[in-house]
Amino acid sequence: MTEVSILSLVKRYGTALAVNDVTLKVNHGEFVSLLGPSGCGKSTTLKCIAGFETVSDGRILFDGHDISNREPEDRDIGMVFQSYALFPHMTVAGNLAFGLEMRRVARDEITRRVADVMELVQLSHYAGRYPRELSGGQQQRVALARALVIEPAILLLDEPLANLDAKLRDEMRTFIRDLQKRVGITTLYVTHDQGEAMTMSDRVVVMFDGRIAQAAAPEDVYDRPASEAVARFVGNANILTGTVEAAGEGRVSLRFGSEGTLVSLPGAAAPGSRLRVMARPEQVRLTAPGAEADASGTVVSHYFNGGFIDYRVRVGADEIMVHAPTAHRFADGAAVGLAFDPARLWPLEGAA
Ligand SMILES: Nc1ncnc2c1ncn2[C@@H]1O[C@H](COP(=O)(O)OP(=O)(O)OP(=O)(O)O)[C@@H](O)[C@H]1O
Fold this sequence. Notes:
The chain is α+β, with helices and mostly antiparallel strands. The chain has 8 helices and 20 strands. Helix content is 24%, strand content 36%. Strands 6-7-8-3-9-10 form a 6-stranded mixed β-sheet, with helices on both faces. Strands 13-12-11-14-20 form a 5-stranded antiparallel β-sheet. Strands 15-19-16-17-18 form a 5-stranded antiparallel β-sheet, with no helix packed on it. Helix 3 (107-120) crosses helix 4. The radius of gyration is 25 Å and the shape is elongated. The two termini are 45 Å apart. The structure holds adenosine-5'-triphosphate. Adenosine-5'-triphosphate (ATP) binds next to strand 2 and helix 1. Belongs to the ABC transporter superfamily.
C-alpha cells in the first residue's frame, strides 16, 4: 500500500489556473473522492497524479518519493476512465493480459493473474467475449480488472460510473467499494456526484475553482460543512438566518423571524448579531398547527417520492425544504409548524 502526498499543486493552462495550490495527503489504503462541479479542477488533479499532465508548481510524492517528473508508466498506477477504453478487437482475457504482456510477465503468471482478477470482478465466465458483447456495467468491471491486474500501488478512477444507468450505478458503487476494501489499495476517485462520493469514500475532498473547500469524512462534510457553498453542493440545504439573543460557553440562542422560538446551538457570536445556520431537509419536522414548534409556515408544494414526501414550506420571506416521512401528510396551502433539531443545526462561517 502506498501513501500519496500532494504538496501545493498548481496547474496552469496559459493564464488559467485549473488547480490552485492543492495540498492533500491520502493515507495507505484510503478511499478518497475528489468532488466538485464541472471545471473545478478535480480531473486535472488526478491527471497530474497519473502523469498525464505536467505540474506547473508543487510536488507529488508516493511514499515520500517525488514522482512529479516521472512518466505515467513509471508511477505504478492503475487508472479507470468514464469511457471504458477497452481494446475492442481483444477478448476480456486479452484485454486483461495486455498490460502484463507489456511488462514481460511470464506466461504462467499472466494466466494465473488474469484468472484471479476475473474472479475478483465476477467475470470468469466472460473470458472469451469481446467488449461489444458485454453490458456497460460488465465493460466497466473489465476496465477495473485491467487497472488492478498489474497490481498497482494506487488506483485512480475518473467518473467511472458516469455512463451507466442509475440502478447499475448504485450497484457498481458498492461493488467498487467492496473490491477496494478487499484489495486494500489506496484509491482516488473523481466524481461530480455527491451521493457517490458520500457512499463510497473514507474521505471526501470538495473542490471549487481549483481549490480544496473541505476535506473530511462524509458525515462531517454533510453535517458540518465548512461553508455555505459546501453545504449547498453536498445535498440540499436550508440556510436560515437568525438573530443571536444570548451567548456564552460556546453556545448561542438564536431567534428566527419575529415569532420564531429560541433555538440553542453551538457557536460563538455576540448578542444582536445575525447568524446563518444550515438545516438539512430531513432534519426539519413538520407538526400540526398548534403543536409545539419553532416556527410556523404554509405548505407551498409537496412531491411524493416513494418513502418520503418533499415539501416546500413558506416561513416569512423564506422557503424551507422538508424531507418528511409519509405517515402524516399535509396538503398544499396547509398551515404547519416546523421543529428544528438543535443538535443538527450547523452554524456557518461568515457574516449573515
Ligand atoms: N487541456 C486543457 N487546456 C486548457 N484548459 C483546460 C485543459 N484541461 C482542463 N482545462 C480547464 O481547467 C479547468 C479544470 O478542468 P478539469 O477538467 O480539471 O475540471 P473537472 O472538475 O474535472 O471538470 P469535469 O467534471 O467537467 O471534467 C477548467 O476550467 C477547464 O476548462
